[in-house]
Every structure is written in C-alpha cells, then in structure tokens.
Amino acid sequence: MRPSRSLLLMALFLILAPLGGSRLAAQDGGAGSFEVSGVEVDVSARTAGAARLAGWRLAQRKGWTMLSRRMGGGDGTLPDGVLDQLVSGIVVESEQIGPTRYIARLGIRFDRSRAASILGVSAAFTRSPPFLLLPIMWTGGAPVAFERKSAWLDAWGRFNAGSSTIDYVRPAATGPDALLLNAGQINRPGRGQWRSALAQYGASDVLIPIVHLERQWPGGPIIGRFQARFGPDNRLLESFSLRVSNADALPALMEAGVKRIDAAYQSALSSGILRIDPALLARAPAAEEDTTVPDESLLPADVAGASEVPAVGLVVQVDTPTANAFDASQATLRGIPGVRGVAISSLALGGISVLRVSYEGDAATLRTALEARGWSVITGNGALRISRRAPGLPPPDVPADNATAG
Questions:
Q1: How much of the chain, in percent, has pLDDT values that exceed 70?
Q2: 10 Å Cβ neighbour count for 156?
Q3: What's the number of CA atoms in the CB half-sphere (13 Å) around residue 335?
C-alpha cells in the first residue's frame, strides 16, 4: 500500500531532524489530542527509510488498539487509511536506525474529536482553573527554577499538557521569570505578593513540582526524589522516588516523574483536594455605607465639611540597574504617607522599570515627598521619573550657594 501524504511528511520531518535520544514531535503540539506513549516497534525492510515508514505504520495500529482498550472499546482495529486521518502527531521517545532495520519506542497522538466519535466517547472534558507551574530542581545542593535551563524544565516543556485535566500555565523562562519565580518564592506565604505574581501570568493558584537529584557517582546511577506541592503554603500532596542506572537516562527519569506528578495533581483535582486558595481570590471588603449624618457643629472648623481625599493613579518610571535598586524604590514609595498601593507595570533590570502608584494627592506632592527621601525626580509626559541621588549632591531644584564667607 502506498504511504499517505501525511505519513510521508512526518517521516521527512524526522529524517531531516537530528537523530539519537532526543524527543521529537511531528505536526501538532499535543493540544486537543489523545496520546498513547511507549509503543514499541521492531521492523525490517529493504532500506532504512522504508523500515521507518513500516515502523510508524505498525505503531499507529498498536497505538489505536491501546487507546481503544483504555477507552473501554476492546481490541479495536481500523484500516491504515483511516488511521492516517486520525493521527495528528508521532513522538519519537527513542529510536535506532540501521540499513534495513528500525527499532523504536514511539508516542502516537490521535485527534481528539475524530477519535472520540469512533470510540463513542465524549471529546469534551473538564479542566481545572489555570495553575501557574513553578518547577524546582535541587542538584549539587542548590535549587534551580527559571534562573537557567535544566533537565526538569525541559521535561515539563515536552510534556503533553493537552491531555491533562490540569490547565498548566508554563512561563517562558525569560524576562522577569527568574526574579519573580524562584525557590525563595515558595517560602513566602504572604497572599498579597502571590496575588501580584499570579496576576502577571493570568493564573489563579500555583503548582510546585520539586525533584531532588542524587548522583551516586559521575555518569553512574541517579536517584530522583519527587514531590508534588501546591499553593502559597507549599503543601505536600505526594512524594515518591525513581532511579535510573546511568546519567544518559536522566531525560527518561524526568519524564517519568512529570507524568506521575501530573497524575497526582489530576487525582487531587477530582477528589477536591486541589482547589484554589480562597485567600488568593479575596479582596478587601467594601466598607458598609454609614448613613448617619454627623453633627458638623461638634467637629473642629478645619474638619467640618471635609471629605476623604480621592486616590489618583500616577505612573512612576524608576532607574533599576539592579534588583536591590528595584526593591528599594518600591519600599520607598510604599512608605510615603498617602500611597495606597504600588503595582508593577513592567520590570527591566539594567534599564527603566515602570510602576503604577495609587496616591492620595497629586504628582507635585509625591515629587516633594520623594525628594525629601533622597531621590532625584524629573516630571514630564504625565509621569515621574526617579533615580537615586548621588551622595553629596543637592536636590536639583536647590539653587547653588554662591555666597562667600565674610
């Protein structure tokens, strides 16, 4: 039978891609699909390309049978032409290619809506609210989150989250991610700080999968001790250990850990254990309206008839050469009387960050308060730009003292 065009295109993709132990996916990224992993094939043909195509064809058949069993349909089979239309992607977990032989372990992704109609199951499934994913790997006695690439981050990046009931929000590990999401953050239970961080990623709560790696000797066995944690209180949901015989199997160890942790989160979601922390959704309660009319004759003359000063939103640009400079600017603004809140609009370490300040007053009053605390302030374009004043320099609006001693 002549191979279908879709199968040939996927084969061409992998032939041109680097071979070896890497995990490669053809076509879609896994969203909206049923995935069957661990499909093993061992076939021979006249050429290496023909053996690979035959291996993929066999993997499609075996994968469909495995999916049918999982969905309660028994040992179902379909013609190759129908399977070509159902398969949306093939993932190479491992493969060995010889002149006439192809040995591989593959993952098969089937289009969810089409496969569900054939299997007689619903294509829709309930997903959780969005959870921010904060993976942390301990190795060499130090934690790594988004500060640099790691095998743990790579494993979560390869994970097919489209087949999970958990709606993972996976940061891109760029920009301020390393500053906002690190191992220290999980030990800060303050809900206000968590609400601010979650709002920047469009998430409702946080999931914290952790792995501690223990290397027996260089290149030798590796033990991974995994923990599934969640929430601002860093609650432990499940823990387990996995082991591989050598360092080359580290990616397989990580992928097995990811799948088991995802299963733990899904189980906790269905049982009601994994749910949004109410404190993350809480807002300051609105004050009940006081309908009592005060007797102004009993109030001092400067208070009678006065109303609460409304807060205005002001844009403040801050020179932030370092993270400490950024923290210092926020601390200063929050310490000024009349400042109700400080929100981060954009963060640029080594450049100019932008803050949104809710202030009971005007820009001129805020400028005076900042200058009194040792900051240089420039007003323009509807915003304030502040920076630390160099030691020993007078404020910019103070005229030079040219008087000589008598």
A1: 79
A2: 20
A3: 9
